[in-house]
Amino acid sequence: xxxxxxxxxxxxxxxxxxxxxxxxxxxxxxxxxxxxxxxxxxxxxxxxxxxxxxxxxxxxxxxxxxxxxxxxxxxxxxxxxxxxxxxxxxxxxxxxxxxxxxxxxxxxxxxxxxxxxxxxxxxxxxxxxxxxxxxxxxxxxxxxxxxxxxxxxxxxxxxxxxxxxxxxxxxxxxxxxxxxxxxxxxxxxxxxxxxxxxxxxxxxxxxxxxxxxxxxxxxxxxxxxxxxxxxxxxxxxxxxxxxxxxxxxxxxxxxxxxxxxxxxxxxxxxxxxxxxxxxxxxxxxxxxxxxxxxxxxxxxxxxxxxxxxxxxxxxxxxxxxxxxxxxxxxxxxxxxxxxxxx
Length: 342
Prior knowledge:
Blueprint: H1 8-20, H2 27-34, H3 39-58, H4 65-240, H5 242-247, H6 249-341
Helix pairs in contact: 1-2, 1-3, 2-3, 4-6
């Protein structure tokens, strides 16, 4: 059934116009002239137009002679023109067909080349799949290595934390030891100062006592010298006055008593001198002992300084060991990501 919108009259007019122009009425040309319409509707109206034109040509009795003759001429002219147009169109169609065949051959060649490329692409895809599988295995292995590296890094970080804690403990112990050492040094310094002050006081007192004893000894020696001088004078006087001694017995006895008394006094002075010498020796011994104790305290102070230096050296060694260990751990931690990426 014909659709509404395109009528037979319109199609017939277009067909007559095309035929008058010497063109074969085709569905495409009719539709191009009309500008719209369904191909099926146009084709049905075209067939109706062709059947009516043929019925007119096959039944000439219905027309007058002139009309028949005119129609025959027109029909012949139309047929000739139609044949010419048909031949022209056929040549054009053949050329188009040849061109399309060439295009088809070219398309076939391109299709064959495309198929070959597709086959190569399929081979490449299979190779890429194999490579992807290998890369996936390598990636899984790398992920496993990364997991192990992270575990090792965590372990190293725990070791670093433990080392930091140990270092803090060592620093606290060293601070306590330094504080105790300072306290000991302060106490030893105070005790040494007190002892030195006491020893200085005792030494000063001993010096004063020794000086006093020496002064006493010098005085006693002077007295002894004076007594010896007096004894010598008495002996001289005794020699000069022997005759007078005989004359004066009482005076001689008195002199003898005086000599005895002086001798006793001299003996006492000698004894006191010996006691003073003993005291001087004791004071010298005390002075020597004090000097020995001072030297001992000085040696102890040097030992304390040496102990402090050894403690400082030990702490420095511990710090260097800690720094070296931390540097080594950091290098290992830095090398772990590089290994994971490799």
